[in-house]
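Progress report, Aim 2. The chain analyzed during this reporting quarter is listed below.
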Amino acid sequence: MRNEHLLIFGGVCIVAWFLIIHFWPLIILYIYKRAILVKGGGDGPIPINTLYTEPQAFFADPLHTPASASKLWTTGVNHDTLATAGWLNLSKGAQILHVPDMAGRYYSVQFTDPSKNTNFAYIGKRTTGTQAGDYLITGPGWKGAVPQGMKQISSPNNSVLVLGRTLVESESDLPTAYGLAKQIQITPFVD
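Predicted structure tokens for the chain:
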């Protein structure tokens, strides 16, 4: 009788372990989405279909940020790149991502499908170059013509996590890098 209880307990532990492994990425993405849409940056929640760049002061002194600052920006204390983040909802229409001319500077914008925790596209120095550009981000089932001069990024899901990074080469470079990072913007596509 005692061995049956151990077998049942062991089976429950194994099932629980597999469930945690399977759902952990989704739980983390849910927490990140909530951090963006509810907590936001130092200025409050970040609206859907909006990108928010880490404040210059948080980057310059991540260990002494104001008490009102979101831990979203200071956790991990990245001292190489400025962070830009946002959550897109493509169910009501496509969005346009504008990237300024980065003049050879490293930057990247990553697009993640939260339902599968997979990155489905990148824009940046290594993939698209550093020239200015506009990218049409469309959801599944989108029908329409891509405007001339724009490249289409097809999302497998209407919900998209966008994470951007802009290289800061030195302390004196921070204002320039910040100015460029702030120009990475999302706007609605109107056809």
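The mean pLDDT is 84. DSSP finds four helices and nine strands in the chain. These observations will guide the mutagenesis work planned for the next reporting period.
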